[in-house]
Write a structure and sequence with these properties.
Largest sheet: 4 strands, antiparallel
Structural class: alpha+beta
Order of helices and strands: HEHEHEHE
Helix content: 25-40%
Strand content: 5-15%
Radius of gyration: 19 Å
Distance between the termini: 60 Å
Strand order of the largest sheet: 1-2-4-3
Number of strands: 4
Length: about 160
């Protein structure tokens, strides 16, 4: 009887822990919103689509979403001719261009993300634009960390 109870407690504990703690490399499963914060690696920034969920902005992070728009094309960026997805993202994320969202802020880099294949198949068509600051002379590129919100983008 005691062994059965221990086994049940062990199973229940495992289920509770698994249900409440997201996997370290969890896919992006939330709707993007201006002001979400992220702790991104160089690989995350270079990924074809969003790979991490946001974290609390009160925690150390190195990226913040400054704009969310609707992806205007029927095809996802990875199915477009090389460079075309970036041009679409540039036109919507308008970082430093005249009246750009990052003009006057202390950010030196922006990255863009679209839904992953599963989210795209469900009909999601968003474009998320994130602001970052590159640490000078870092190779490979590294991003400065901060706590708390430093930026509130245009809606």
């Amino acid at each position: 009887m005691t062994k059965i109870r221990l086994k049940i407690v062990s199973v229940v504990t495992t289920v509770l822990i698994t249900a409440t703690v997201p996997p370290v490399n969890a896919a992006y499963t939330v709707k993007p919103k201006v002001g979400q914060c992220f702790m991104l690696t160089t690989a995350d920034v270079s990924a074809s689509y969003a790979t991490k969920n946001p974290i609390a902005c009160s925690k150390t992070h190195n990226a913040e979403t400054y704009l969310v728009a609707k992806w205007p094309l029927a095809l996802p960026p990875e199915q477009l001719p090389e460079g075309e997805g970036l041009e679409v993202a540039k036109s919507l994320c308008y970082a430093w261009e005249q009246d750009g969202a990052l003009v006057g802020y202390d950010f030196t880099f922006w990255a863009w993300y679209t839904p992953g294949p599963k989210a795209w198949a469900r009909g999601e068509r968003w474009l998320r634009c994130d602001a970052m600051k590159v640490v000078e002379n870092s190779d490979p590129r590294k991003y400065q960390n901060w706590k708390g919100l430093k930026f509130r983008g245009k809606k």
